[in-house]
Amino acid sequence: MDPDFWLRRWENKETAWHESKPNPVLVTHAHQLALPKGRRMFLPFCGKTLDISWLLSRGYRVSGAELSQLAVEQLFMDLGVQPDIASAGELEQWSATNLEIFVGDIFALSQKALGGVDAVYDRAALVALPADVRSRYTAHLMALTNKAPQLLVCYDYDQHLMDGPPFSVSGDEIRRHYAKTYDVRLLASTEVSGGLKGRCPATETVWLLASKKD
Fold it and tell me: Can you give the CATH number for the domain in which 173 is found?
């Protein structure tokens, strides 16, 4: 997916994926990650999601990566905090108490710049990427986070009926990307009410990717 596609969507306020409340998947299943307060969660393609304020309010530290500076500006404005902005290689790092967002191409984000994270919450990244990019993304995410456990949200539908994003990512594909590294467990599978974008029957799936025991 051309980065300009996402930048135009933010500029034109075509952000139907942005929710007006924390995502119910996170609220319901965050405990599956078993993270004590004070631990650090990474959100790829975070936008200005209210999931961030929900996590902060529960005592977690949050880091994210987002291509659109406009989205990050709106995020900090909504939080009512003034960010400190610094260079982080090819990206910018916007920081406030317990919060760091890296602005730019996630593939240019290094593990050194990101630092240690304890878990990943991927609600918007894997499904935003076309099939020919997803292998590169999943490998980069595992390297970036040192194979931290993940809470992953996907959609499963007939890709012939509708173009993404969000793209259809089946359970078989998730296992193909992640099963060598994680114990992959399906937590929930729910029909999307009214269909995806009101056009296509689809199932929302929620996965826990837990680190394999040695």
Answer: 3.40.50.150
